[in-house]
Amino acid sequence: MKNRISKKTADNILNGSILKALIFLGVPIIINSLLQTMYNLTDTYWLGKLPSEEPMAAISLISPMQNVIINFGQGFNAAGAILIAQLLGAGDKQRAKKMANQVFTVAMVFALVCASLCFLFTPYIVGWLGAEGNIFSYSRTYLQIVVCDMPFLYMINIYSAINQARGNTFFPMVLNFCGIAINMILDPIFLMVFKMGIMGVALATLISKIPCAIAAFILLSKKKEDIHLDRKFMAFDKNMVLKIIKVGLPTALGSSTMQFGFLLMSKNVFKYGSSAMAAYGIGNKISGIITTPSNAVGSAVGTIVGQNIGAGRYDRAEKAYKLGRNIAVCFLFCGGMILSRNVFSRAIVSVFSNDGQNDVINYASEFLSIMLICCWTNGVHNSTTGLFQGSGHTLVTMTIDATRLWVFRFLTLFVCERVLNMGVRSIWYSVVVSNAISALILYILFLTGLWKKDTIGITRQKKGV
């Protein structure tokens, strides 16, 4: 079954229906992304049932730092997916196999080193964020436990990246489904039965990833697959590692600096109180779920563009991008217009808050409504990002991601807070304005044809990296 799915999708990527390729790739990615989101969302749901809002505020405060760490390493996984996809498009399976092993080595070394350092420095990180009292204690406990899951998370993500490059997104989805099922069972047990508080929530997240990581390693080690883990290919290859760094470092820096910007945004929100902080976390998580299809389209576009550019078929790559962009924009525009109505937004955020937390519900519903009205710009942003990443232009996406936070968002925040005196609403509007501006810039860059410039060399050489 697995080979049939992969072969059918691979055929559509290079020769068949682009719409079918987007569906076969995108639907499992959507489900997979929702499952990934459910790890934190499940935590948010159960913590929201507690009488105090402090545990929720602690997770909202620390999540951006957690994402900084995770997203930096993810940049190298993304680079591997791009390079493997282009090598497969060029018909060089042997190099694709070696590249997969190099990505595995680089990512796992990074995960082990980074997890150790973050565990040691967690108290200083939490203190720098401005947490005090119970929130400091909750944040420290949660972060020290969840950073321990990095090696397991990276193993799962490596498996997903390699399979996505091959056109198989179904089995990574199944793997993540098992993980979230375990998490959903353990969360209420640790939190409500054993009364372990935020420690129980963090442990549930960590434990749920372990069996999935073991399964991913076993599946990646199967020698009957064209691309599998092989110790003889794991020794660092200078040329390949440099290629991974060239493509992956911009993505890693872009993602991590963007997340670091979110971290500073959290500090700005936190000054408005724990209710605003909790609302900010809830609004971002719900918005993330709603825009998941757009993110999935961007990932699918990246895979299709990567393989077709590897095969030298730029016209087909452009066609895939335009189709994916139009689908994402239409979906988000229609969904955003409906769900942004106050009756819907308030009902959604109420699911994640205690009935007595009226300030949290008011803040979160307003934030969500504002974001959803403009969320269609994410469709442009995500699909165009997929185009540039699939073509190897990760420096472009890094620059846009960095300026979106560090220039457009903070500039809008400054104007709204200091000039217009909008208070906490300054946070909400800074998010939507910066997202819209970055989407516009990416689209203008697409029109210039910059993405057609070959920066990796796989298309020309066909053999070798």
Q: Which helices and strands appear, and what pairs or packs with what?
A:
Layout: H1 2-14, H2 18-47, H3 54-89, H4 93-128, H5 133-146, H6 150-166, H7 170-193, H8 197-220, H9 238-270, H10 274-290, H11 292-310, H12 314-339, H13 342-350, H14 358-373, H15 376-390, H16 394-419, H17 425-448, H18 458-461
Helix pairs in contact: 1-2, 2-7, 2-8, 2-10, 2-11, 3-4, 3-5, 3-6, 3-9, 3-10, 3-11, 4-5, 4-6, 5-8, 6-7, 6-8, 7-8, 9-16, 10-14, 11-12, 11-15, 12-14, 12-15, 13-14, 14-17, 15-17, 16-17
Structural write-up:
The chain is mainly alpha-helical and 465 residues long. The protein has one domain. 82% of the residues lie in helices and 0% in strands. It contains 18 helices and no strands. The chain has helices spanning 2-14, 18-47, 54-89, 93-128, 133-146, 150-166, 170-193, 197-220, 238-270, 274-290, 292-310, 314-339, 342-350, 358-373, 376-390, 394-419, 425-448, 458-461. Helix 1 crosses helix 2 (18-47), helix 3 packs antiparallel against helix 4 (93-128) and helix 12 (314-339) runs antiparallel to helix 15.
Compact overview of the structure:
The chain is mainly alpha-helical and 465 residues long.
Query: What summary fits the major beta sheet?
Result: none
Total helices: the number is 18
End-to-end separation in angstroms reads 32 Å
Give me the strand/helix succession.
HHHHHHHHHHHHHHHHHH
Work out the strand percent. under 5%
Label the overall shape: globular
Helicity, as a percent range: over 70%
Low-confidence stretches: 460-465
Count of the separate structural domains = 1
- Given the helix and strand composition, which structural class is it? mainly alpha
Rg calc: 21 Å
